[in-house]
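Q: I have 133 residues here and want to know how they pack in 3D. Can you give me a structure?
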Amino acid sequence: MTAPLTTLVVFLGGMLTAALHLNRQQRNTTANLIAGRRIRVLCIVKGPHTSSWTRGYFVIESGRWTWEPGARQDPPFMLPSDVRPMRMRPPGQGEGRLNHRFLVMECTSAEGAVLMAALHGRVEHVFMALTRG
C-alpha cells in the first residue's frame, strides 16, 4: 500500500515542479518583452522554396524582429522580411518533425507560403511581432 502512495506523491511532485518551472519561464519571457529586452524564440521554419524544416531563432527586441538561422545550415535559410501570419493550427500528420507542443503559423510573403512552428507560450510573441511589423 505504501509503494503506490509513494509513487503517486513523487509523480505529483514532479508535475508540480515542471508546471512551476514552465510558468516562471513564460513570466520571464513576457517581462523581458515588455521591458524591451531582447528575446530569442526557437522556431522551426519551412520556406517557400525548401522541402524540409530548418531551425533558427526569431529575435524580438525594441519593437522590431530579426531572424537568426541555425548554426549548421549551409546555405542558411533567411526568413523573408515581409512575412505576415494568416492562421495558427496544431501540427498535421505530414509534419512528423513537430511534436504536439508546437503550433504552426501559416504565413504569406512575396516569395510564397512560409510555415513557422514554435512552442505554445512562445508562438504568441512571434505572432504579435509579425502582425505589428
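Q: Anything worth noting?
A: Residues 63 and 132 are 8 Å apart (CA to CA). The mean pLDDT is 83.
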